[in-house]
Amino acid sequence: MWIRNLLHLRQLAIVLLLALLVFLTLVPILFMLFSSLKSNAQILGNFWGLPAPAKWANYQEAFASIWRYIVNTVIYAVAGSVCVMLLSAVSGYIFAKKTFPGKELLFMLMLVMMMVPGILTLIPSYVLYENLGLTNTPWVIIVSSAAGGQIFGTFLCRTFMSGLPSELFEAARMDGATETRVFFQVVVPLSLPIMATLFIMQSVGVYNDYVWPLLTIQDSRLQVIAVGLTIFTKQFGITDMGTQFAAYAISSVPLLLIFSFGMKYYIQGMTQGALKL
Amino acid sequence: MRRTAWILFAFALLLGMSPQIASAQAQWSLEGAGDITSISVAEDGSRVAIGSHGAKTYVYGSDGRPIFQAAANNVVNAVDLLADGTLLAASDDRHLYAYDASGSKLWDADLKRQVKSMSASRDGGVIALVVQRNNDLLFVDGKNGEQTNAVPIGTSMRFTKVAGNGEWIIVASGDQFVHLLDKTGKTLLRFGAGGQIQAIDISDAGMTAVGTKLGEVELFDAKGKALRKLKTRDMVSAVAFSKDGETVAVSDLSGYFYIFSPNGKKLWETKAGDTGRAVAFDAGGKTLYAGTDDGRVLQFDTGSVVAKAKSDARIRMLVWAIASVAALALIYVLLRMMKKNDKLGVFREIWRSKWVYLGLAPSFLLIFLFLYFPAFSGLFHSLYKWQPGGRTTFIGLDNFRRMIHDPYVTKGLGNLVILIVTGLAKSLIPPLIVAELIYHLRSKRMQYGFRTAFTASMVIPGVAGLLIWQNFYDPNLGLFNNFLELIGLGSWTHGWLGDPKTALWAIIFMGFPFVGILQLLVFYAGLLSISGELIESAKIDGASLPRIIRSIHLPLLAGQFKFLIILGLIGIIQDFNAIMIVTGGGPMDSTYVPALQMYYAATKFSDLGYASALGVSMFAIILVITIVNMKFIKSAED
């Protein structure tokens, strides 16, 4: 009996400890949500108090100043991720299911690029995009995310697609389907889970990227949210802390949406990437 | 071996492309001259006339011996030396003066208005003038200065230039247009420049060079077709063709002087003084005269530079020709050998897989252009002094030497070591503990619930998370100081980020309690993959929980540890987001890391070569870590 009690106690202790850790982990989010409804006076005067009355106007003001950054970033993220999906699906399929001269060499060329850290290419890339006249345009974000993301994407797709039964493609070909048809009507539908993983990982990556847009985009009308969050207070002359926190909260909405639909895929991608490396 | 040869060969070619440097042979200071407004060189190169802001015109011999000077009553805007030795000088005192070779005045035309620009053909047959508030281009007779013609341009003009052979006349107007006239004054055509025009010149062949405020010299052919743009560092102040039209000299307001070939290659550049004002070639194109805003005239021997550039171009072409012949021969031999060994089938295979290559083409195009090229460019330029749009000079290992002596880098390395040690501890220990705790929960639903709860922190964008943490450390409004006061430790409150002693530790503490989601999931998945039988048998043998963790879990998680350590190392060495946003490296140098110094070298100081060298060094460190780790893993598996 007491053993059972002990076990119960132990479970209880674990739960409590985990709950405490979860709480501590989420302190920034909770703090953000509370503070976003306060005015400066409330934060200064009653730091620990609940926002009373809640100042919803903070959200209005924050939204008015940062919506543009969010829209920009979402467009870049979607465009970049779609490019990555297309490129990775084609390359992944070819590397998984085709034999051709030079396959090993080309695959090695990709593999090598996974070893090259971003820090080496950051500045020369910037100069390259500048010389190509791509800086300060949406392309600088979209192209760089497509070029960089497809490498990891090709690896994921290759692994996934080698697991697809080749007989299926053969059957389609026997029925007279062209190679493009096989690809779009058999390979792509079967690979939707990995595509979703890619899309979500890539979009989240673009959405969180800070240094590259900071370096390459000067026009604040084209700026992304990560940089926008650090400049909008100055730009719009916002001095209210509450509004700043409201902006942080609003900027989390796209991530919240994408994670609530695709957390499973994101985790899959993260752990798969971890195991493949 | 062959590859090494090719790389060396490519290097040699690239080295040949960097612009040459020539030094000033002589310089004369003109007392009280102020800005040099214009320079004109006699056709035989023996004399140089200089117009100055100080209302004087000077004539020097090419050896620097003063011949005479002539005073006007206001700024001398333009001078021109004709073939017969006549000197024309146009001034803001509303006069156009003509002097003979010995300096005595031939005539003096009162034009009633300030003469803003003047140019003459070498023989003096065509003399064109732009005067203030008059939309007509005036022509005067070289013999007596009397007005012979007035051509309406219809808009206010800034500059005019007559080609040396007198065949062409160009006029730059205030509305960014260039008007091209023939020698009779008939307007041939009109074309627009990209920016406000600061200087123009036209060659005997009718090629026009237009210097603009945008720091560009635009070249047009005689039909008004834009040929190309030459980039300078600042607003262009003067342009001049050599007599043969084969080179263009340019000066800009940053004090740089340039020589370009008309096909757009920068042959030479140098910096002299703060602001360049005027340039002119002698007739042979061997000597360049350059005027500055502090009354100095510099004489550069550019003949050798230009000649060298030309011979370099020839050599390069020869090398390319030889190389391509060699490559063709090599391919031929290779094909012969393959044929002999009956290996030609590979081409049939390649042809059969053409669609495969086509499918891979977009990917590899992007990879080569946007990944390989920058990587090699970084490696290559780490040996150069590399400035955007400017000079790229080979300086060997100087960037790396400088790095060793850069106090920000040494300080940054110290910080980086601290960040790596703490960062690895942060990224391994708390996630492992949490993974174990979740693993030991009995209820599957609770396991799932807690896993999800921890991942919930991902919904905040990284930058927002950093800004919130930055706010936590605020001396007055921050969570920390308020919390300390709440629990009665008010005396401990502190400007956490403002104090060099605590700033780094404040950054390290960000993200408490450090339950990294990737790490948590990797450990958790690792624990799940440990077979239950192993644990059961250990339990039957009477092993306690700590014993199980120590002797079963940890050894079996070794792979996960290795992976997370290497990932952590690579990430920490490269990451400077947090530091840049939260402290910007400060206060003082207390939170610098090498990656941040790299970013600043590139953005604040435009020193791309040095930034590349820092990037290359970090790459080398990461590479060593990766290789050591791979060896390590391999030997562990054996």
What is the averaged pLDDT score of chain A? 88
Q: What's the β-strand tally of chain B? A: 30
Envelope shape of chain B: elongated
Give the low-confidence spans of chain B. Answer: 12-23
CATH uppermost class of chain A: Mainly Alpha
Main location (chain B): membrane
Pfam family, one (chain B): PQQ_2
Membrane topology (chain B): Multi-pass membrane protein
Signal peptide (chain B): 1-24
Give a written overview of the molecule.
Chain A: InterPro entries: MetI-like, MetI-like_sf. Chain A: Residues 70-262 form the ABC transmembrane type-1 domain. The complex is a heterodimer of chains A (277) and B (638). In chain A, helix 3 (57-97) crosses helix 9 (192-208), helix 7 (166-174) runs antiparallel to helix 8 and helix 9 packs across helix 12 (241-276). Chain A has helices at residues 2-35, 40-45, 57-97, 103-115, 118-131, 139-162, 166-174, 179-190, 192-208, 211-216, 225-235, 241-276. Chain A is 81% helix and 0% strand. Chain A contains twelve helices and no strands. Chain A is mostly helical and 277 residues long. The longest helix of chain A is centred in the first third of the chain and has 41 residues, at 57-97. Chain A has one domain: MetI-like (MetI-like fold, Orthogonal Bundle). Chain A starts with a helix and ends with a helix. Chain B has 638 residues and is an alpha+beta fold. Chain B folds into two domains: 31-301, YVTN repeat-like/Quinoprotein amine dehydrogenase (Methylamine Dehydrogenase, Chain H, 7 Propeller); 402-637, MetI-like fold. In chain B, the strands form eight sheets. In chain B, strands 1-28-27-26 form a four-stranded antiparallel sheet. A four-stranded antiparallel sheet of chain B has the order 2-3-4-5, with no helix packed on it. In chain B, strands 6-7-8-9 form a four-stranded antiparallel sheet, with no helix packed on it. In chain B, helix 5 (398-405) crosses helix 17 (608-637).
